[in-house]
Amino acid sequence: MVAFYDPYWNKQHMRGHPSQLFPLFILAILAPLFAFGQSPARLSIVPALPPAPYKNLQTPVEARVADLLSRLTLNEKIAMLAGAGMTTRGVPRLGIPPFKMSDGPMGARCYGPSTAYPNGVILAASWDINHALAVGKSLGRDARARGIHILLAPGMNLYRAPMCGRNFEYLGEDPLVAGAIASAFIRGVQSQGVAATAKHFAGNEQDASRNNLNTEVDDRTLHELYLKPFQMAVKSGVWCVMDSYNPLNGVHSTQNDWLNNITLKGEFGFKGVVMSDWSSCYDTYGMAMGGLDLEMPTGRFFNEKLLLPLINNSGPVKQAIIDDKITRQLRMAFSMGWFDRPQLDSSIPKDDPQSAAVALDGARDGIVLLKNERNLLPLDPAKTKKIVVLGRHADPAVIGGDGSSFTYPFHSISTLQALKQKAGASAEIVQVPWVAGQNSVPAAFVEQVRAADAAIVCVGFNDQTEMKTHYGPVPGTEGEGRDRTYSLPTGEDVLIRSVAALNPRTVVILNAGGSVATDGWLEKAPVLLDAFYPGQEGGAAIAEILFGQTNPSGKLPFTWEKRWEDSPAYGNYPTPEKPKANTYKEGVFLGYRGFDKKGTTPLFPFGYGLSYTAFDISNAKVVQDTNQDIEVTATVRNTGARHGAEVIQIYIEPPNSGAPRPIRELKAFAKVTLNPGETKTVPMHISRSDLAYWNPDTRSWAVTPGAYTARIGDSSRNLPLKAPFTLPPDSSSHLTRN
User: Distances in Å between the alpha carbon of 573 and those of 12, 299, 513, 519, 595?
Assistant: First the structure.
């Protein structure tokens, strides 16, 4: 009998190396010759053996991983530890493809034009979990239309100071909002067979000197604030975590054993891949032992020349460490189905109308109306016959901040273009050209501004004319790799004052990733609409809000201070005057927590935003279950005349625990959409573990028994309802949140 041998099944003697397979190939060729002339009784055809276990879809993921891992040579494993530009390195011999990556916070941008979504801060300003899920799904579809396996999103660093160049990519100052929005986004992306990437891990709350500036922050503050969104992302199933550029407490993140191994992989239970940010690696041994699994974009440190001497001859880097890194890559790939289907889905159009619709909804959902004196907005189309539009951000469209997130769309619409479309022939739209260096209204347009039914002033950072190419040649004024100014760009505050002096119906539209200095102009402008960076459809959403076709429902995901000196981070954040100041001395009193502690009144509080309708929140109740978790319910009624949405926010005031704690902290929220006169009762769940604080002495979460108060309202400074409850002592002295 002649059998054809499948070398994949000989695990004991073969690892699949070509030199080992050659004799078997010769045997397979010669065997029929030796059998020639034998009687039919001695010849039979043996059925082909089943495929290798790693090729079998019915084999459990971990078994597929173990089988494929066993077939890789050490050199192949080392090759897989480093990228090749925007892909991982494949192993063609075993059918392991390169896994394709793309920058992704605002769009799948690395392979030509793509849908440009509203930036992260506006997603957070929506406070809308369902929309975050929809954006994730839509971005996942965009990725599949380009054959992308790994989307480098979401950005999850917290908003600490308004000058951070990448605040626009991130999700605000509160870890619960950031973590909840990011988790929904991740679930959406990964539902499409694309791996999401939580970044930048950790302590990258500034972009000035990001490669070198050490982040000094204590263990408790890290756990309660800056690591919490990442822990929530791990719980949501995220497959990739990207280490940050900066050192954390003196050790670069890409070789930080405490951060990657002890905390992320150990305490949080992360089973996926830890990758570096681009060129953020510094030491081969430190990276190997410090928990980094993938160096991007190339193997400057993870390569045979530097790694093999550390592995061979019982070196300090054990093969088990390398195997764990490869196991994580393979686990992700098998779990996401990358071996079992093409990643490219050509049935999805690259310029997808569904994606454009999601982008428009995001801008509608997240733009925040901060000031609306005399109910100037919405504009009445029947009475608005002339609108004058000023400022360099009026046209072309302002899409996003600068850097690796900036996405060039197939098409976009500016505020000026959208106003012309909405107004049609019923109103005259006049644009006052912006001239570089201009600081007031040109004389030829003074009477036009004075006579207008509305004067729209478009200001902020990163007008489209700055965004020539990625990182240049003229970089945007707010973006990656640097911090921006706190004040508006030169001349824009003067323009606002000049227009407001001419016309009491002045509307300011701001494009920025965070707060800006408002002294000298905000008190003169009756309306401020914060549009952040609203993506390719932002102009349409702005025009809809101005004319009342969309009711604004966004809420600030950060605290807007009256002046920079009021910020809890003031004095501890790097500035041109103190470039090396990066100590998080405010501790757990970040943002609204610090304003509450100091008794400082913000300009606009965290969670604040206006609507064209009104809401009444009543009937707050707390019910505890047998697990000592609580459910808080509140009744919301739309008492106005327009359809709208309100964000119900629950802040918990804890008893004295002996450790300094915020007066109150956000522990639950829900966005509720209501027709005029409609009432809904909203339940929100808060677990006992959500009320814990981090005890650095025991390195565990602890819950203080005693009297708590739930405060319910629509911002951190408007919490009219109170509901007390008591937590009894738990049977254990502390708890761990997994």
Answer: 58, 33, 17, 21, 17
Residues 185, 186, 192, 197: what is their CA dihedral angle, to the nearest 10 degrees? 130
- How many other C-beta atoms are found inside a 10 Å radius of the C-beta of residue 176? 17
- Give 438's pLDDT tier (boundaries 50, 70, 90): low
Q: Does the annotation mark 277 as catalytic?
A: yes
Other beta carbons less than 10 A from residue 342's beta carbon: 10
User: What is the rounded distance in angstroms from the CA atom of residue 269 to the CA atom of residue 666?
Assistant: 25
Between CA 133 and CA 182 the distance in angstroms is 9
pLDDT digit string (tens) for 686-709? 999 999 999 999 999 999 999 999
Asked if the model's pLDDT at residue 38 lies above 70, the reply is no
> How far is 376 from 350, CA to CA, in rounded Å?
40
Alpha-carbon distance values, 227 to 179, 268, 515 (Å):
10, 10, 24
Of 67, 174, 277, 463, the active-site residue reads 277
Q: Give one DSSP letter per residue of 165-211, joined into a string.
A: TTGGGS--S-HHHHHHHHHHHHHHHHTTT-EEEEEEETT----TTTT
**Which of 266, 427, 379, 453 minimizes the C-alpha distance to 612?**
379
Q: How far apart are the C-alpha atoms of 511 and 393, rounded to whole Å?
A: 8
- What are 75's two structure tokens? 């050199």
Query: In 10 A of CB 309, how many CB atoms?
Result: 12
Domain that holds residue 588: 559-605
Give the count of beta carbons closer than 10 Å to the beta carbon of residue 603.
16
For 718, phi and psi rounded to 5 degrees?
Answer: -135, 85
> Are both 105 and 196 inside the same structural domain?
yes
How many CA atoms, within 13 angstroms, populate the side-chain half-sphere of residue 724?
A: 4
11 SS3 class: coil
Give per-residue pLDDT as tens, 250-282: 999 999 999 999 999 999 999 999 999 999 999
Residue 696 neighbours by CB distance under 10 Å: 14
Let me know whether 541 and 564 are in one domain: no
What size, in residues, is the chain?
738
Q: Is residue 399 part of a domain?
A: yes
* Radius of gyration, alpha carbons of the chain: 29
Tokens 């360099």 correspond to 392
554 and 584 in a single domain? The answer is: no
Q: Do residues 189 and 151 make contact, with C-beta atoms less than 8 angstroms apart?
A: yes
Neighbours of 385 (CB within 10 A): 13
Longest dimension (CA), the chain: 108
- Write out pLDDT tens, residues 591-640: 999 999 999 999 999 999 999 999 999 999 999 998 889 999 999 999 99
Cis upstream peptide for 342 (omega within 30°): no
Instruction: Tell me the DSSP string of 331-360.
Output: HHHHHTTTTTS-S--TTS-SS-HHHHHHHH
CA 290 to chain CA mean position, Å = 24
Q: Of the candidates 338, 298, 303, which has an alpha carbon nearest to the alpha carbon of residue 99?
A: 338
- Count of domains forming the chain: 5
400, 101 Cβ separation under 8 angstroms: no
Distance (Å, rounded) from C-alpha 424 to C-alpha 445? 22
Tell me the CATH number at 652.
2.60.40.10
